[in-house]
């Protein structure tokens, strides 16, 4: 049976980008077609300046939201990365497989380290090695597929390289995984700056729609989205990134194609109104279920405990095999 692994970092509140780019596939497709493991990757949240209490709170909120979005513990394994030691055990072996040059070439590292330096902060070593830990997250579970948004494609590519290199050097140990990207909304952009991705780790702005935003806030953010000069609605990511972003969001919510939808609109106002309606329709049940689950924290704990137990069972043989193969 196909094995699927994916994760989400508790560095901020989950966004519409996380939902359309990743979580929705997990819920609607992945958990039904494969042995799927989904992880709140809390160790990754320590790669940038962090507040311990906030990370703990956001980890729990992410897990609760994944359940609210429709992950079913009977169909998939949901757990928190730091509850399963195999991730860090394997990560070290992969650090001994990767080179510092390939880490420094990672686009996210370049962007995030530049941002940290620009704001006067120091860059944590873990920010550089984070893609190696991500590779360990994936390889420990012998995942065949990694459903992610476009921004993670390079890290999955690196994971493949490390798996192939390790297998070649030390004997076949890892499954070589592949990234699976959604066909639309693989990179949802910030509504106020459609040249930047909508990222939960970015400072909170009105360009980011959070899954737990109140309905009127979501509507306001979408109605105020930056569009482009001109008034015609065409799907062109280069020339009209703001309009293209709205069309992708609408298409992802309704199941249409962005270019086809563009033909139905002759004003930005109508496009924004329909996009807001579609997003609200999609998020309403998630918000309702989230409120119910918050009233039952014991349930979320039990799901995560059972998830970690299963995850350990799956990961341990592969990680043990990697230790033996590398000469330990
Ligand atoms: P973030 O960058 O918001 O902190 P994560 O690194 O936790 O997100 O990523 C969780 C998943 O959500 C990944 O599969 C990632 O590719 C996807 N994702 C994040 N932001 C977006 C976006 N703006 N559009 C599409 N997918 C996204």
From TrEMBL:
A motif ('KMSKS' region) lies at residues 197-201. One of its GO terms (molecular function) is ligase activity. It is an enzyme of class 6 (ligase). InterPro entries: aa-tRNA-synth_I_CS, aa-tRNA-synth_Ic, Rossmann-like_a/b/a_fold, Trp-tRNA-ligase, Trp-tRNA-ligase_bac-type, Trp-tRNA_synthetase. It catalyses: tRNA(Trp) + L-tryptophan + ATP = L-tryptophyl-tRNA(Trp) + AMP + diphosphate + H(+). Its EC number is 6.1.1.2. Keywords: Aminoacyl-tRNA synthetase, ATP-binding, Cytoplasm, Ligase, Nucleotide-binding, Protein biosynthesis. L-tryptophan binds at residue 137. A motif ('HIGH' region) lies at residues 10-18. ATP binds at residues 9-11, 17-18, 149-151, 188, 197-201. It is found in: Cytoplasm. Belongs to the class-I aminoacyl-tRNA synthetase family. Catalyzes the attachment of tryptophan to tRNA(Trp). Homodimer. This is Tryptophan--tRNA ligase. It comes from Streptomyces blastmyceticus. The gene is trpS_2.
